Amino acid sequence: MADSTVSARPLTLGIVAGEASGDALAATLIEGVRARHPGVRFVGVAGPRMQAAGCEAWYPLESLSVRGFVEVLGRLPELVAMRRALARRLVAERIPVFIGVDAPDFNLGLEARLKRRGLRTVHFVSPSVWMWRPERVARIAAAVDHMLTLFPFEAPIYADAGIAVTYVGHPMARHAAVPGTRRLAREALKLGLAQPVFALLPGSRASELDLHGDLLLETAALLHAARPDARFLVPLATRPTRDRFESAIYRRGLGELPLTLLYGHATDALRAADVGLVASGTATLEAALARCPHVVFYRLHALTARIVRRKMLLPWVSLTNVIAGGFVVPELLQEDATAANLAQAALNLYDDTVTRRRQEALFAGYAAALRADTAALAAEAVTGEMRRAGACA
Questions:
Q1: Same domain, 339 and 378
Q2: Average confidence (pLDDT) over 268-274
Q3: How far is CA 148 from CA 45, 135, 164, 304, 364, in A?
């Protein structure tokens, strides 16, 4: 009877994502695996898209929504306790394979703990070892059995370190904008074709809203003063981030600005916009694939920024510039990220039609280079690890 009970247990895989972009990537992977193995159950830290794909959320995505050395200190005991509890529960579930999706500072520690217990571990999205903290490759080797990379230049880094690696492309590239998309996006959002439209992307974490919300509102006020016909689209990933942004609007008395707040729909906002003001992160790639000319900005706690600068290997931070290998979009970081600078950079780009068209043509090439069947490739890699764990034939 005991053996019958064990054999009847559904095959369960663990998965943890830590922000909106990870939620989307994890959902793609879940859908790919379940297309091959419909009975597989996923459990872990999940956002709405993962849950819609069939993942059971033990903790909500917002549990890991924090970035920066200093910023994480206040929540460190909570995060450490959560990681230990997750490890215990995943081992108790007898999962054969665990997939950590981005969130490397949390997931690599969890993966190392699980790997020591004999579980197979997959990490989906390479940490930016090519940009900073290259010493992490040794830590990754101790924690990860198989790395899934979004960009082709990342795979050799792991192959050289003896880590199994699969380049899976970026799922956003399969749905990249094409000529004519801006007109359709504006029609859907009931915006005129001739009026200036700016997309404001403050980031998906609550901590990013705290640093960027007021900055973007002040920037929008300056842009509106210069171009009274301008409209502003603000996609916000979660209810907490939307609440923070709305609070900032009323705290600063800017309720009359022509702002359209969107719940998610960042791609729609970027496709409709003439210019985007985009917080550094995955959203910069999203802007490029939407063919949206953009300016990149970011602010961190001052101490975190000093630490990051000492470890940087490249002179640029946005994925748009990393892929190009040069400054194709402006970056305004830390003390340079002021409302006056952002507004001027956005106006300069809006007024320079030639530069905007050059950016759009370059971004079309990004889509072609990154397009792949990400769900199928990721599912094949995960299935291989399931076989190695003896979980499937």
A1: no
A2: 96
A3: 19, 19, 9, 28, 24
